[in-house]
Amino acid sequence: MTASLVLCSLTFILALIIFIFIKRKQTKLNLPPGNMGWPFLGETIGYLRPYSVTTLGEFMETHIARYGRIYKSHLFGEPTIVSADAGLNRFILQNEGKLFECSYPKSIGGILGKWSMLVVVGDMHRDMRMISINFLSHARLRSQLLREVEKHALLVLNSWEEDSTFSAQDEAKKFTFNLMAEHIMSLDPGELETEKLKKEYVTFMKGVISPPLNFPGTPYRKALKSRSTILKFIEGKMEERVQLIQEGKDSTEEEDLLNWVLKHSNLSTEQILDLILSLLFAGHETSSVAIALAIYFLPGCPRAIQQLREEHLAIAREKKKSGETELTWEDYKKMEFTHCVVNETLRYGNVVRFLHRKAIKDVRYKGYDIPCGWKVLPVISAAHLDPLLFDQPQHFDPWRWQSDANRGSISSCPSGSTGSNTFMPFGGGPRLCTGSELAKLEMVVFIHHLVLNYQWELIDETDQAFAYPYVDFPRGLSIRVQRHLSV
Ligand code: HEM
Ligand SMILES: *[C@@H]1O[C@H](CO)[C@@H](O)[C@H](O)[C@H]1NC(C)=O
Ligand SMILES: *[C@@H]1O[C@H](CO)[C@@H](O)[C@H](O)[C@H]1NC(C)=O
């Protein structure tokens, strides 16, 4: 009796000490200001409310106004530090694996797979990253991808009929999907199996971006089903390929990703499937949105279209003279103004608006504490729309990217650089997008043939881009096109 009383009071005292200790530690912490919102839900609903693509959205704007560029909140079921601070964002991305770690919500892992590149960390991430870097290397871009990109751009653009109206977003998706499907698994556009995969993939995508409610009939549930259909398809391709490799009948000179992974890596079947699915996802959704955004922004800036046309006409004429038919890497490098348009589209449109991380140590930054285990959301779009970093950020102004030498005036950017310091549409650090060079190549080559061949107009003012926060044109971005008479 006495013994249990003593034990009881000891436990109580111990609990009290721990409680006081935690309380002291917490009060000593200097968390950023902010509002934790409702229990469990926190502020997630406000955070995910759709907004116009060229803004940061009301939630972000009011929170920054109230609390500053670093604030605390409760999002996706976890206590979270949101950072719209360019310096902290760089710090977070650069310290991947040391102070912070990639940490996407569970639902993403459920659908992209537990071996998806967006989800894996540590050695596994390093190995998969090596594969994707190899697959998207500069040498491959020059020797193989440039040709494939041009082929697929022309395939889509040549199918457009004079004076017709259609969804530019769908056309951009067709382009990037066909390109990835060919480069990853040698699927031909238009073939039955490619079309079936594309259809399945649309259902799959709807689930990636919808709430993870696994009930019959929800988009998430349907997407999980699509996921297994797609994986079965890829697995079938894999088995065919293993057979060919064993028989020594695989073609070695133009290897696709599937071949390369089977021959050069130790990944298990399950890992290869998730890797391929995540590359298809990462390499298709983002760059098609970027192309749609360029089609959307440019008509608001006729002077830019004019300058683009001059740049591409000059190149096309020169090629005609020398009898060349395909674009070369030198042509690509010459498209300087187009590169400015690409950067400006990525800055203004922000295809990826924020990333998911968590602190794996207690971190102090500018006097604020970020406790170990908290989610951290670097909002990489915030710097791109910050008037202190980009002069008149609400203007689509490709010329801001021209080097001072070219335009003979002072840089419009007070920080002195529109450079990699604050501009990070592709993230940064050890998880920097491995497809950034391919994405730019796709955008530039598509724009090249677009402005050479067509004039286009947006036919519906209400057909706009929104951030959900993934970027989408809910009405598809309808355009009407007219062919230019001659090149
Ligand atoms: C305009 C188009 C694109 C944008 C804006 C974009 C943006 C990004 C961003 C911000 C990340 C970092 C994610 C994070 O840190 O959590 C990322 C990662 C990645 N992207 Fe892209 N991306 C684009 C196109 C592509 C393309 C065409 C590919 C080609 C397959 C690709 C493949 C990848 C891969 C594999 C990763 C994961 C890298 C890693 O974890 O090490 N992306 N992308
Ligand atoms: C695959 O595994 C073997 C033996 O386990 C090892 O020697 C080789 O380096 C590994 N290759 C790769 C690409 O990881
Ligand atoms: C576009 O931005 C990148 C940084 O991501 C920079 O290195 C490049 O020079 C910029 N291009 C132009 C034409 O300014």
How would you briefly describe this protein structure?
With 487 residues, the protein is of the alpha+beta class. The protein has helices at 2-28, 44-47, 57-67, 86-94, 106-112, 122-135, 138-157, 168-185, 192-208, 219-246, 257-264, 269-282, 285-297, 302-322, 329-334, 336-349, 381-384, 404-407, 436-453, and strands spanning 51-52, 70-75, 78-83, 100-102, 165-167, 357-359, 363-365, 368-370, 375-378, 454-458, 466-467, 471-472, 478-483. It is a single-pass membrane protein.
Topology, element by element:
Blueprint: H1 2-28, H2 44-47, E1 51-52, H3 57-67, E2 70-75, E3 78-83, H4 86-94, E4 100-102, H5 106-112, H6 122-135, H7 138-157, E5 165-167, H8 168-185, H9 192-208, H10 219-246, H11 257-264, H12 269-282, H13 285-297, H14 302-322, H15 329-334, H16 336-349, E6 357-359, E7 363-365, E8 368-370, E9 375-378, H17 381-384, H18 404-407, H19 436-453, E10 454-458, E11 466-467, E12 471-472, E13 478-483
Parallel strand pairs: 3-9
Antiparallel strand pairs: 1-11, 2-3, 4-6, 5-13, 6-9, 7-8, 10-13, 11-12
The structure holds protoporphyrin IX containing FE and 2-acetamido-2-deoxy-beta-D-glucopyranose (NAG) (2 copies).
Comma- or semicolon-separated keywords:
487 residues, alpha+beta, Uridine Diphospho-n-acetylenolpyruvylglucosamine Reductase, domain 2, Cytochrome p450, 2 domains, 5-stranded mixed β-sheet, 3-stranded antiparallel β-sheet, globular, binds protoporphyrin IX containing FE, binds 2-acetamido-2-deoxy-beta-D-glucopyranose
